[in-house]
Design goal:
With about 210 residues, the protein is an alpha/beta fold. It has eight helices and seven strands. The N terminus is likely disordered.
Length: about 210
């Protein structure tokens, strides 16, 4: 836990969530419900939006499923959560959870990894057409990003720029789709250099002119 300039301790994002029992399985939902309302002073996540969280079902073990996560987030008076999965869309799951847990906004996204064809404008467009209004973010490649593979000492992976550093045309098509829908474009796990190129290109696509 780091200290800021005033000497006060600032917990990491995960430490704060663990303290509140949202991640790590530190406070089961049924036990929290049985203990009654939590005093406002003990709700550090009140009004907050979790921009992405990985619940079950998933290929990787997770500490909570979609439903339990939404219930716990509502108990903590959070404003919204966004479900994330590295393989497939989560806006369909988010829609169903919202019907079962009123009082908390639930959104989903799409990560452009290999299971959906990598940088696939059709996948992004289809994701955004789902009913329910829960599609909120398109992430560039995460665990299938070329940079992520390189860090893990593996070959291959999905690239978002060419060898000269120019953003690929398919990535720009995804940007245009995202801009038209007015949702979030996440840089995923691409390299810092790729991220800067992506941000510049996204601004160009959003404004319709070169910067």
């Amino acid at each position: 836990m780091a200290k800021d300039k005033t000497g006060e301790k600032n917990g990491s994002r995960r430490e704060i969530l663990q303290a509140a029992g949202v991640v790590g399985g530190t406070l089961p939902v049924h036990k929290a419900a049985a203990s009654g309302p939590i005093p406002a002073a003990e709700k550090p996540l009140a009004g907050m939006i979790e921009m992405h969280v990985h619940p079950m079902p998933d290929m990787t073990p997770r500490s909570a499923n979609d439903l339990d996560l939404a219930i716990k987030a509502r108990e903590e008076d959070m404003r919204a959560i966004m479900l994330k999965n590295h393989e497939f869309i989560t806006n369909d799951r988010a829609y169903l959870v919202k019907q079962m847990v009123p009082g908390i906004e639930v959104f989903g996204g799409l990560a452009l990894n290999e299971p959906v064809g990598g940088i696939n404008p059709v996948a992004a467009e289809t994701f955004l057409k789902f009913s329910g209004g829960c599609a909120k973010c398109v992430w560039l490649p995460t665990h299938d990003a070329a940079h992520q593979k390189m860090v893990a000492k593996k070959g291959g992976g999905v690239r978002v720029t060419d060898h000269s550093g120019q953003v690929l045309s398919e990535v720009r098509k995804v940007m245009q789709i995202v801009a038209k829908a007015d949702v979030i474009l996440g840089t995923g796990h691409v390299s810092p250099k790729e991220s800067l190129a992506v941000v510049k290109a996204a601004k160009e696509e959003a404004s319709g002119r070169s910067l």
